[in-house]
Amino acid sequence: MPALAQRLEQVKLSGSTRMSIRARELREAGHKVISLTVGEPDFATPAHAVEAAHQAALAGRTKYPPNDGWPELKAAVQRKFRRDNGLDYALDEIMIGNGGKQVILDAMLASVDPGDEVVVHTPFWTAYADIAKLAGGTPVFVACPQNNGFKLRPEDLDAAITPRTKWVVLNFPNNPSGAALTRDELRALTDVLLKHPHVWIMADDMYEHVVYPPFEFSTVAQVEPGLRDRTLTVNGASKTYAMTGWRVGFCGGPKPLIKAMVNMQSQTTNGIATVAQAAAIAALDGPQDGVRERMEGYRARRDMVVAMLNEAPGLQCHRPDGAFYVYPSVAGLLGRHSASGTRLETDEDVAMAILEEVHVGTVAGTAYGMSPYIRLSYATDDATLREACTRIQAFCRGVV
After folding, report:
1. Is 170 helix (H, G, I), strand (E, B) or coil?
2. Residue 95 · residue 116 · CB < 8 Å
3. pTM of this prediction?
4. In terms of Cα–Cα distance, which of 324, 230, 253 is closest to 87?
5. Are residues 135 and 108 in contact, defined by beta-carbon separation less than 8 angstroms?
6. 97, 106 in Cβ contact below 8 A?
7. pLDDT digit string, tens, across residues 354-392
8. Which fold, 6-44+290-397?
9. Where are the alpha helices (DSSP H) in 170-327?
């Protein structure tokens, strides 16, 4: 058989995907598995967005779209950036991608050369490091410890930047920790970034609207307009509007970078599905009250999950200000044995034992670059979450 590409050695199957596969296997074997591994909203795509897609299909809007997105969708994104972030992007400074991940891939492929460094704060969404490697770059990891609320400290960011740094990636609210930065905390980071004019900044704001009062969201180019010309503001419809399967990401940034990214996208997927673009226009321009109502539900779930996990012996769970994940430390379980006799040496051991013994799927912190933790998504119904946390409590009480 002919050889596969060496670049495949740079990337691995994500931790959440691996656990999801094992959870499915157990479920198929007859076990009642609760999977808290996948980060997607549990509510339906807004009906008016679905109807817009339907009408677009009926109207025959099913031909090849522009590589950078429909002008109508780019205009809706333009309005969104003005409305929510106080950012004014021209239409040729906006691009639509097949989800936020492709936007990030296009940016990296269009800008990163072999040997370039990409600064990523940990814990991190796994795609950042893998995409940097695929582009020929080297990820540089900066730890955000739990005792600082999993937030990036300006002095740590400054120390990580070198003459080889091409990008700094900022993801707040964060996947997996849920950490979010106040305006003042973000300002401290932008002060550092102003000192390094050779560095691009990627603000991955996918969880912008998944925040809990009194916290208020801010983004990089909004806080420091002086960084606008080297900041790529990334967002999408997935988390805010429960449109994960529609694959609609978008970004605003300087025209030369956007032009290069569109060129890259034209050689991979071309433009995104037309009916998905129609749905995204309706979601962005339609009523936003439902978004706020759903966030209230997430806040109640967060509080319940944090309280129940902190009652589990050996776990310590920080209360996040955003996203729909918790990232409890499992340090208190390590070096011990589960009720079935499994030796718990790592967070991977803990996550797998919880899945195998009490049938709750989580993801080990190793997948996100920071151990010993596990990630749980609470984007599911209250009864399921309560049952999952009850099982985890039982697991922890059985550890000796």
Report:
1. strand
2. no
3. 0.96
4. 253
5. yes
6. yes
7. 999 999 999 999 999 999 999 999 999 999 999 999 999
8. Aspartate Aminotransferase, domain 1 (3.90.1150)
9. 183-194, 220-223, 255-266, 274-285, 289-310
Per-residue pLDDT reduced to its tens digit, 149-203:
999 999 999 999 999 999 999 999 999 999 999 999 999 999 999 999 999 999 9
Spatial separation of the C-alpha atoms in residues 214 and 199, rounded to whole Å:
32
Q: Please count the other Cβ atoms lying within 10 Å of the Cβ belonging to residue 155.
A: 10
In 3-state terms, the chain is what percent helix, strand and coil (to 5)? 45, 15, 40
Q: Answer whether 259's CB lies under 8 Å from 292's CB.
A: no
**Dihedral-angle region of residue 13 (phi above 0 means left; psi in -120 to 50 means alpha; beta otherwise):** beta
Burial of 32 (0-12, 13-18, 19+ CB in 10 A): exposed
Domains 6-44+290-397 and 47-285 share a fold: no
Q: Which two tokens stand for residue 179?
A: 């950490």
Domain ranges (residues) in the chain:
6-44+290-397, 47-285
For residue 50, the 8-state DSSP code is: H
- Look at strands 138-143 and 117-122 and give their pairing: parallel
Between CA 41 and CA 294 the distance in angstroms is 10
Q: What b/e readout covers 14-24, taking b as 16+ CB neighbours within 10 angstroms?
A: bbbebbbebbe
Strands (E), the chain: 34-35, 94-97, 117-122, 138-143, 165-170, 200-204, 231-236, 249-252, 325-326, 336-337, 343-344, 360-361, 363-364, 374-377
Structure tokens at 235: 């967002």
Output the CA–CA distances (angstroms, integers) from residue 108 to 128, 242, 250, 364, in the order listed. 9, 26, 15, 27
d(CA 100, CA 104) in angstroms, rounded, equals 6
**Residue 165's beta-bridge partner residues?**
117
Residue-level pLDDT at 137: 97
CB atoms inside a 10 Å sphere around CB 269: 15
Half-sphere exposure of 350 (CA within 13 A, CB side): 31
CATH (residue range 47-285): 3.40.640.10
State both tokens at 14. Answer: 């994500």
Question: For 274-307, how does the pLDDT look when each residue is reduced to its tens digit (9 = 90+)?
Answer: 999 999 999 999 999 888 888 888 999 999 999 9
